Amino acid sequence: MAGTVSDKQGSAATRNTIQRALVLEAVRSLHDHPTSADVYEAVRRTYPNISRATVYRNLGVLANRGDVLRVEVPNGADRYDFFNEPHYHAKCRVCGRIVDVDMPYESDIASKVSDAHGFAIEGHEIIFDGVCPACQKAGA
Amino acid sequence: MAGTVSDKQGSAATRNTIQRALVLEAVRSLHDHPTSADVYEAVRRTYPNISRATVYRNLGVLANRGDVLRVEVPNGADRYDFFNEPHYHAKCRVCGRIVDVDMPYESDIASKVSDAHGFAIEGHEIIFDGVCPACQKAGA
DNA sequence: TTATCTGCAAATACTTTGCAGGTTT
DNA sequence: AAACCTGCAAAGTATTTGCAGATAA
Fold it and tell me: Where does the chain bind Zn(2+) (chains A, B) (predicted)?
């Protein structure tokens, strides 16, 4: 690539702080779509004085950068994911757990929309609703 | 503990209260995916003493009954819709407005999922992300 | 040096819940 | 009468923000 990493294009400069590195590391090590609370607890184990605000702010910075993927969950805390490629999610209606689903990502899905009332569609998310294996067993 | 309740099939009996009727009427008359706050304001115009808690509780009852459709929006208040048939939604990333999109509802979409880690899929929602016409004009 | 970042606390946004009294059936 | 419902206030959950001091570059 001819582009440089220092091409900030008008966005504010970002620093490399211990806290930010720890937040990124935590998201990478927690493979189960951690919430901000999960990340906070994980970072606290090695850096007890970090504040929730710092975790929230850094998750925001990292998501904007594309270093992590933010999964916005209806009626639940946002989840974070180490970004590989776009994919869809399923949420357990009993325990709230989020899992990735293996289904082709339809990048041209907007072409199926015949009328969005003038909306300029820029992205989409599909969230499946169901019951996870653990809750199936518990409820049976 | 059988035999105490008549024919309610396990669900609690529901009453017809003025508040519940007004909440349903408000959702039917507000055609723009009202939030609970919108419904609260609408009902208050004719019934000033209703409380937010009653509005929330009744929206829940009506959604469980299937009389209204609850649209759970990531990072925003839930929206309510008079139920016709399942459909998808788009959310403006600037102002948060929700609109219906005109796209075929894929009731068999779960057949496209090759692996959901044992999830029993029961439903799905697609939320498009974009910019509404008003915000396009305002931002241009 | 200085703009960014941090921790703390307070604030915000949305929703639920405990309680005591009122209403529907 | 019994079960359900209501209003109020308080609590709960998730996230953001103002501020003053700390720190990366």
Answer: 92, 95, 132, 135
Question: Is the whole model's pTM more than 0.70, yes or no?
Answer: yes
Within this chain, do residues A80 and A113 fall inside the same structural domain, yes or no?
Answer: no
pLDDT digits (tens, 9 = 90+) for A109-123: 999 998 888 999 999
Q: Are residues A73 and A15 in the same domain?
A: yes
Test mutation, B87, B119, B121, B131, chain A, max A CBs within 10 A = B119
Closest to B117 measured CA to CA, from A38, A34, A130, A69: A130
Cβ contacts of B126 on chain A, cutoff 8 Å: 109, 124-126
Three-state DSSP class for residue B49? coil
Determine the Cα–Cα distance for residues A15 and A13; give it in Å rounded to an integer: 7
What are the tens digits of pLDDT across the range B20-75?
999 999 999 998 899 999 999 999 999 999 999 999 999 999 999 999 999 999 88
B69 and B113, same structural domain? no
Q: Specify which residues B17 forms β-bridges with.
A: none
Find the nucleotide nearest B49 (Cα to C1′): D7
